Structure prediction request, 445 residues.
Amino acid sequence: MEQTAAKPQNVQITQTTPVVQVVVPAAAPVAPKDDKLKQLQDSILSANVPQMVMVCIGYALDLRSSDIHLEPLKNRIRIRYRIDGVLRQIVEYPPNLHPAVVSRIKIMSNLKIDEQRLPQDGRADVTTGEGKEMDLRISTLPTVNGEKVVMRIQDKSRKIPDLPALGISGISLRNLQEALEAPNGIIINTGPTGSGKTTTLYSCLMRLNTNDVNILTIEDPVEIQLDGLNQSQVHPDIDFNFASGMRSALRQDPDIIMVGEIRDKETANTAIEASLTGHLVLSTLHTNSAVESLTRLINMGIQPYLITSTIELIIAQRLVRKLCDNCKKPTQTGPELLELVKKALSGLHVEGEIDKNLVEKLQFFEAVGCEKCGKIGYYGRLGLYEVLRMNNELRKLIAEGATTMQIQEAAQNGGMVTLEQAGIIRALEGLTTLDEVYRVANKTE
Prediction:
């Protein structure tokens, strides 16, 4: 693309994140880590749009970012990275450079350059200088100040962690392992967007992926390609959706089917049909807790007797930021918060789920910030898991039309660890903070 933009005058560049080890795209020379951010700044000052875009993407990958936001404001354009689930501002550049930047990204992702009134979605493949391949999902949105661009990064070289590495442990891990060994049934994973549901399902599929089973997936989109799986992407514009994909998958002699999301009654009924005919089905649902997933299915119009005969296990999950091991320190917890913690732990009916010494001390930690974590106090993320394993008592309550609270109480009495309890356990172990736990989990009432 021609670089016709004039060199901007009086450019204000704001640095709000530390410089770390560089992973530079093949189009640019590898820079020392102390020069990485400077290279991005220099490309802005010189209006070198192609280099600016590629360095911006490479820098984001190196900072473990999941998304890049290019946001037009009134008098400036800011670039923000979502790192460990939190947006962090990186630099700003002048508005007169933005049309060329957007056009460059549109060319990379085969979008219409001259269409600025409608949102567009596309994708692009990028290979870094170190040979790392990444898939960019690109979305543009018209705003009053210009087009906003969000690029979601999917690192193709990233390995799927095993279930314990994701944060599943104790009775939750045992129940999930038993459900994965079942010959048929439905395993549902629930949580908000960006809570790691797809990664958890991929981790489950990795355990199931052997030469003697046929695994099919229906996804939107296919985020990570796994060897040994037959992965298909839906195309709603030609009526190839989750429901029709499931019906087609059933004609492919499958043993295990993973469908990206149960969005409607038709998809739910097809999943139930697959389960009743001897298949193991994995899918996701958007609800706030494991028990609320049962209510959601009933509201879709699924009969309770079908739910009790097919649902094997429901997972609710959230992601919290992990404390930096290099700078975390013990902290004093207020009496009100301690009472809340004690109340939550009193409902934990599982022996050996947490070290008794930790319960006696009730010592928590706080984020401090150092060079290693970029003065944030957190580095990486950890999953909190609430795993409900179906049993005869729960089946009876569902069939009798029991309330959500009654089912929740029975599930906890049967050994289910709630999201709040799982978070408190991780906080006592020094892996996260109570602030992070209660940012994503409901407090005990």
